[in-house]
Amino acid sequence: MVDPGKRTVVLVLLIMMSSVWAKDRLINPSKLEMFVDKLPDMPKVQGFDVVDGVPRPKSLNIGMYETRWKFHRDVPPTPVFAFRTSLANATVPGPTIEALHGVDTYVMWRNYLPPKHILPWDLTIPTVVPRIQRGIPTVVHLHGRIDEPERDGHSDSWFTAGFRERGPKWTKEKYHYHNKQHPGNMWYHDHAMGLTRVNLLAGLIGAYIICHREVESPLGLPACDEFDRPLVVFDRSFRMDGSIYTNSTGNNPSIHP
Asked: What would you measure as the largest C-alpha separation in the chain, in angstroms?
């Protein structure tokens, strides 16, 4: 038998959640039908060239854009920030970068974000604010990478659109990834001071894979696009109009502007 006390707690929680959904005009996730959308296959970008059958270093240009993304059949298109080589093909998550062990990849991360964020900032925590108070600071961190610290997405290495403003630790426009560590899956994401959570919530995430054929081939495992499909799992709350919801009271509500 179910403890009556536990049943009461569950009922109270459900009532509270229903109240929050109604107050903030949120979509009740229990009302959304599951498994109605095809599993998306994120686009892939090769982080290397092949010349005369030999892998060579490659330079990529990947931008950050404001666009709209369809998360569910019954949820209106959602304003998001997204990675890609152009606005027309920006996705959430961003493209999967496929690198080869020991072959250099260079990435020019471009900030094409609008002057104003789509989500509220929490200024009760240390947060970078541009001097002219226009533009959204970003910097890309490759999570799990072993490499040069000056190209590791330090939170104070941020920059706004067109590099008009730059953080105190900013050094270079182009990042150099040596790809000399063990093969495996990593992910890249925004890392700007105090804005990481809202920039990630907005959609600035993507997968990065280092492959090592000499290590992987002897294992005899299934390979190629038919079998290799990285999955990035994350959760979001949505308002009735499809926009992403985030609490706007801040980490320290008593001093939140």
From this structure: 72
149 three-state secondary structure: helix
Q: Considering only residues 8 and 46, tell me which one the structure prediction assigns the higher pLDDT.
A: 46
CA atoms within 13 A on the CB side of 110: 13
3-state secondary structure of 178: coil
Place of tokens 């979509």: 27
d(CA 158, CA 193) in angstroms, rounded, equals 8
Question: What number of other Cβ atoms are within 10 A of residue 90's Cβ?
Answer: 25
Owner of token pair 């854009």: 65
Tokens at residue 54, please? 């030999």
With beta carbons less than 8 A apart as the criterion, state whether 120 and 198 touch.
yes
Q: Which two tokens stand for residue 51?
A: 């010349």
User: Residue 40 — φ and ψ, nearest 5°?
Assistant: -70, 145
Give the pLDDT confidence of 173-183 residue by residue, as tens digits. Answer: 999 999 999 99
Helices (H), strands (E): how many in the chain? 3, 10
**Tally of CB atoms within 10 A around 91:** 18
Against a cut of 0.90, is the pTM above it?
no
Q: CA angle, corner 143, sides to 142 and 149, nearest 5?
A: 60
Percentage of the chain beyond pLDDT 90 is: 61
